[in-house]
Amino acid sequence: MMSNLFSVFDPATSGFNLPLNWISTFLGLIFIPASMWLTPSRHSMMWDTLLAKLHKEFKLLLGVKKTNKGGTFLFVSLFSLILFNNSLGLFPYIFTGTSHLTMTLTLALPLWVSFMVFGWINNMKHMFQHLVPQGTPALLMPFMVCIETVSNIIRPGTLAVRLTANMIAGHLLLTLLSSNGPTMTQPLLWTLILAQILLLILESAVAVIQAYVFAVLSTLYSSEVN
């Protein structure tokens, strides 16, 4: 039963000895009409407004005073990629790439490694200061160094697991509810459909929130090494 339940996350479809499910990570971009990017519309204006707000917020977190968007481009793009994959996974029979640690760790680990390398090479004194919070008693300093080191090392893992777990949880609940549909009477079936609609709305919100959390935390980790 459990293997069947988790099989919805299995990248089983393959061709040319390659898993084709992962193509869904970027395949949906092909189906977005070119008019959305080339000509102004209500949807493109809403998207541009969202990206502008994210740029301002990420610029504030990074402490960037310049008006150019170069410093925040990486994190806005990261938000867009995760949001696109989370939202695409809500459609039936579409593989959810962000429900796999293979993808989430691929996003989180290189970012964290690059931040650490940059910080320790360019701001070594600042990085050492980060290991001991201000106001720590001298007796507790060795323990705080160990705690801060461990919490720093597990950051890419927590980023990846948080996103993966949230994507898996909602999809599993939808799968569990839908599997009981054929055995239900008609009144209960309508209740089940209503519950699934509400859960789908909740999952849509979770898709946006988790993309935002991932991008914001990555921005904060970047600001700490500067």
Automatic annotation (TrEMBL):
Pfam families: ATP-synt_A (PF00119). InterPro entries: ATP_synth_F0_asu, ATP_synth_F0_asu_AS, ATP_synth_F0_asu_bact/mt, F0_ATP_A_sf. The keyword Ion transport applies. It is a multi-pass membrane protein. The keyword Transmembrane helix applies. It is found in: Membrane; Mitochondrion inner membrane. The chain crosses the membrane at residues 20-38, 73-95, 101-121, 189-217. One of its GO terms (molecular function) is proton-transporting ATP synthase activity, rotational mechanism. Keywords: ATP synthesis, CF(0), Hydrogen ion transport, Ion transport, Membrane, Mitochondrion, Transmembrane, Transmembrane helix, Transport. GO terms for cellular component: mitochondrial inner membrane; proton-transporting ATP synthase complex. Belongs to the ATPase A chain family. This is ATP synthase subunit a. It comes from Cryptotermes parvifrons. The gene is ATP6.
